[in-house]
């Protein structure tokens, strides 16, 4: 009886579950096996939403293309990091480059970051904001898709790149400051509802190939209605950049 039961269990293990033919093996895409990506992608389980461009066009994109473009989220393609995950450079077959933020960490915080970014950047559109091209939901993964900024962050040029600070002449610094200010002014005064970023710092100011500033990382942002002057909230942000009135009273305003 025991022998028959054992043979029955083994025979069941050999049966492929329904739907396996629709799954794509990813380990063959890249030699990186410790990237944290599940070895199989179910086409039906992945949701990729891309926002229309200025011409109201959209491009079809699947999870498999994202994984190929980032070389299975290779460490060699990491271009940024934050409290909620890593940002990867994605290069597609047609030469297009995008930045993919792969959220990680506490599930509750990750979902809040994901929702805040999509909610803010799907309505806020300005030349001095990093454009959200779309997002992807796949199993437990949350991906945000942005325009790629060729020159990285202002923080990189000021504090990390050798002689980077010396390469930023005063006209360029002024242009960056003006661009970031225009982006914030749009968030505070023009965008409906208004948005309080709550984490403005040099690493969240990204620069394109022309060193034009783009405000990024809206994971801690809060929406504020036009008739409101502030939001009372928990203390978040980066030490050294938090305004005293916000740090002491936990009141985030458009001025600080």
TrEMBL record:
<keyword id="KW-0325">Glycoprotein</keyword>
<keyword id="KW-0472">Membrane</keyword>
<dbReference type="InterPro" id="IPR011009">
    <property type="entry name" value="Kinase-like_dom_sf"/>
</dbReference>
<keyword id="KW-0677">Repeat</keyword>
<keyword id="KW-0723">Serine/threonine-protein kinase</keyword>
<keyword id="KW-0067">ATP-binding</keyword>
<dbReference type="InterPro" id="IPR001245">
    <property type="entry name" value="Ser-Thr/Tyr_kinase_cat_dom"/>
</dbReference>
<keyword id="KW-0812">Transmembrane</keyword>
<dbReference type="Pfam" id="PF07714">
    <property type="entry name" value="PK_Tyr_Ser-Thr"/>
</dbReference>
<protein>
    <recommendedName>
        <fullName>non-specific serine/threonine protein kinase</fullName>
        <ecNumber>2.7.11.1</ecNumber>
    </recommendedName>
</protein>
<keyword id="KW-0433">Leucine-rich repeat</keyword>
<keyword id="KW-0732">Signal</keyword>
<keyword id="KW-1133">Transmembrane helix</keyword>
<dbReference type="InterPro" id="IPR017441">
    <property type="entry name" value="Protein_kinase_ATP_BS"/>
</dbReference>
<dbReference type="GO" id="GO:0005524">
    <property type="term" value="F:ATP binding"/>
</dbReference>
<dbReference type="InterPro" id="IPR051824">
    <property type="entry name" value="LRR_Rcpt-Like_S/T_Kinase"/>
</dbReference>
<comment type="similarity">
    <text>Belongs to the protein kinase superfamily.</text>
</comment>
<keyword id="KW-0597">Phosphoprotein</keyword>
<dbReference type="GO" id="GO:0004674">
    <property type="term" value="F:protein serine/threonine kinase activity"/>
</dbReference>
<dbReference type="InterPro" id="IPR000719">
    <property type="entry name" value="Prot_kinase_dom"/>
</dbReference>
<dbReference type="GO" id="GO:0016020">
    <property type="term" value="C:membrane"/>
</dbReference>
<feature type="domain" description="Protein kinase">
    <location>
        <begin position="73"/>
        <end position="256"/>
    </location>
</feature>
<keyword id="KW-0675">Receptor</keyword>
<keyword id="KW-0808">Transferase</keyword>
<dbReference type="InterPro" id="IPR008271">
    <property type="entry name" value="Ser/Thr_kinase_AS"/>
</dbReference>
<keyword id="KW-0418">Kinase</keyword>
<keyword id="KW-0547">Nucleotide-binding</keyword>
<feature type="binding site">
    <location>
        <position position="102"/>
    </location>
    <ligand>
        <name>ATP</name>
    </ligand>
</feature>
